[in-house]
């Protein structure tokens, strides 16, 4: 029985290779699509009816800021283009999609996110909270799931499969880039490139560490309300640094687990909700 990390690695391989899961290996039933409209990345995830990854596509985002659509036509065009590309790969139409929002955003902003999906000719299945989507992939029913993306840190606390709290604060990977740019007097693009260079990861982490501490403080503010909560799962691109988990664990005094492919957990989780809301 493959675990979440195996499934995430499979999805990562499909996405990077531009490959698809062959039809004969898929469960019968309609394909499910998850559309993650992130601040840094747009990701489309396709699974079969049993939740097995079938295909995926990602591109840089420009029209979304912390769950707010700031370039509506540009984002719709991007999602349409990505949908068409996946349909061409799969040789079939993609009909139904779920999407997600950072927890606690304004209902009007959530509506705009849903409108993007419909304007890209998807039937909108539902809109879920990002960390809740991630929790579904990871099989977490008890614990906290933290999504540290480009723009925000989102936290959902689950007990017995029920969401007890969902919180989102504006601190993410973009803030790390800003701190790096400020410290080294770099242009933002140069700072972002440096941040993503594995050869410089140690030096970079030393400089962005205060942002990680801030993220951990945000998470502590939520999880400390739940003294019996012992495990925190971290996902999202900004947790990619090797030392990230240790810094979080020290600050939170709890076990911190980082899955394989942290950038892909939330997008894949969103697709798992596309079968709902019928
Ligand atoms: N290897 C890496 N090391 C450090 N940071 C990384 C790495 N890979 C990606 N990131 C950062 O992760 C962020 C993107 O993560 P993700 O795709 O989860 O965000 P998003 O979903 O677009 O944003 P949000 O959820 O906040 O709207 C960017 O700030 C990016 O620079
Ligand atoms: Mg995200």
TrEMBL record:
UniProt KW Transferase keyword: no
Residues in SHS2 domain copies: 32-138
Pfam families: HSP70
Keyword Nucleus: no
Residue ranges of the TM segments: none
Signal peptide: none
InterPro entries xref list: ATPase_NBD, EutJ, FtsA/MreB, Hsp_70_fam, SHS2_FtsA
UniProt cross-references to SMART domains, sorted A to Z: FtsA
Keywords for the protein's UniProt record, in alphabetical order: ATP-binding, Nucleotide-binding
Protein name, UniProt field: Ethanolamine utilization protein EutJ
Organism listed in the record: Rhodobacter lacus
